[in-house]
Amino acid sequence: MERRCPYAPPAEYDRIRAENPVSQVELPTGKRAWVLTRHEDVRAMLADPRFSSDRANPQFPALVDNTRMREAFKPSLISMDPPEHGPARRAVVGEFTVRRMEALRPRIQEIVDQAIDDLLAAEEPADLVTHLSLPVPSLVICELLGVPYADHEFFQQHSGRLLSRETTPEDRRHAVDQLTGYLDKLIVEKEAAPTDDLLGRQIVKQREDNNVDHEALVSLAFLLLIAGHETTANMISLGVVALLEHPEQLKLLRDDPGLTLSAVEELLRYFTIAELATTRLATEDVEIGGVLIKAGEGVIGLSNSANHDPAAYERPDELDIARGARNHVAFGFGAHQCLGQNLARMELQIVFDTLFRRVPSLRIARPVDELDYKRNSTVYGLHSLPVAWT
Amino acid sequence: MRITTDVDRCVGAGQCVLTEPAVFDQNEADGTVVLLTDEVGGEAAERVREATHICPAQALSISD
Ligand code: SF4
Asked: Looking at this predicted complex, what is its ipTM?
């Protein structure tokens, strides 16, 4: 469903939520699935282990035909269920603790300052996406994982293709093969001489635990590289647009930089750019919101609708950076909640703080409704964002 | 107010640490929650209450 305007979720969500909050839809693949639209129901479903994330299960309510993709590699964290998921997640989540992310702050600040220098050196109007939104998360995830940033064009191109719903199954498979091949080679090199980065440390850890698994490492690297790129990049671009379009909110932020973290939560809620990541398969009969969902049925926890549920947020379609929206489900909920969430929070916080402080005259160089929105991508966002400042 | 954690459920999302860093920390090795104290009162208790609600794994509980 298309978003009503670049910001608000489709109007249908409000209607469905009010009339038939747990209802069935037909997916593009012809399968049927339940759609949950209420905040409470989405949270209940995502926290319930009777709903499976196993994307390799043929009954899983996939939105695109990804049979060819499934053949390509081992299930990664997002597709695992208990008992495999817990230990696999724990093996890596120590790399993403709040304290570990804080330690990265000075380096992220440097990367952001450098990107803004580049932006200001460019000719106006300049594209914020290529100068800031993409390079910041891309550099950060590359350094964290230990992937050479010099190759960024290669994986940015393939990950973009992977996330677009317009990509054919063949092209999607090709993008997966290219990326997997690249990471496979990189990890082989690291196995020969482990480097001091996330992937190197995982190799050492696997050996200590007597649990060497090259394939698992390739799929982990794949997941983190893709997830670390597009999501944060799109939130940077959309966040900048939203704040520039709400000058009274931007002024609040400028007057009190202590509000930035709360603004980040609100922007995450407001846009909920990965609204369909929260899809599951019932493994038992479960009642959700008064409706019986049977074993073998697919369920989409529509996080964008949940995050605009008036029962959970007053005036949900208004941007209110001071509202304290910490209980949003933009990062999902339950055991699979986004692993990189605290990295994303910090990147967004530093970018918004620094950008509006250093470039107070920033403006969008094109009418907002004519911007190039990603209307057909798994992750909502902007292809480009022309800005000016003089 | 007393706090208890269920480390087996914890998925290391760190939401509790973000909400009340004086009470919650994370284990460096596997990211799981570590309690810095198990008794809180006053304003901190409010934030701990919020953390129990936000925790994605329902790994935190409180009792009076
Ligand atoms: S918020 Fe919950 S899951 Fe996350 S670290 Fe704290 S206890 Fe663990």
From this structure: 0.92
Q: CA-CA distance, A206 to A200, in Å (whole number)?
A: 10
Q: Check: CB of residue A63 under 8 Å from CB of residue A97.
A: no
User: Is residue B7 less than 8 Å (CB to CB) from chain A?
Assistant: no
What per-residue confidence (pLDDT) applies to A30? 84
Do A229 and A159 form a contact (C-beta atoms < 8 A)? yes
Best of B10, B25, B32 to mutate for ligand 1, by most ligand atoms within 8 A of CB? B10
pLDDT of A6 higher than 90: no
Maximum C-alpha span of chain B:
31
Of residues A97, A327, A331, nearest to B26 (C-beta): A97
Q: What digits encode the pLDDT tens for the residues A59-70?
A: 898 876 655 555
The answer, for B56 touching chain A at a CB cutoff of 8 Å, is yes
Q: B5-62, pLDDT tens digit by residue? A: 999 999 999 999 999 999 999 999 899 999 999 999 999 999 999 999 999 999 999 9
CA–CA gap between residue A296 and residue A360 (Å, rounded): 53
Optimal mutation site among B26, B27, B28, B55, interface A, most CBs of chain A within 10 A: B26
d(CA A135, CA A156): 10
Q: Which residues contact A233 (CB under 8 A, 6 or more apart)?
A: A129, A133, A134, A136, A137, A138, A381
3 state DSSP class of B57: coil
**A273: number of Cβ within 10 Å:** 23
CA distance A135 to A124: 19
Confidence (pLDDT) at A377: 77
CA dihedral (A40, A41, A46, A50) in degrees, to 10, reads: 140
User: Cα separations (Å) of A90 from A94, A112, A217?
Assistant: 7, 30, 14
Which two structure tokens, joined as six digits, stand for B63?
Answer: 């009792």
Tokens at B58, concatenated? 């329902």
Instruction: With H, G, I as helix, E, B as strand and everything else as coil, classify residue A173.
Output: helix
What are the residue ranges of helices labelled H in A209-326? 214-245, 247-255, 260-271, 303-306
pLDDT band at A214 (very low <50, low <70, confident <90, very high): very high
Report the alpha-carbon angle A68-A73-A79, nearest 5. 95
Q: How confident is the model at residue A384 (pLDDT cuts 50, 70, 90)?
A: very high
Quick check: A89 and B12 in contact, CB under 8 A?
A: yes
- How far apart are alpha carbons A240 and A235 in whole angstroms? 8
How far apart are alpha carbons A300 and A275 in whole angstroms? Answer: 9
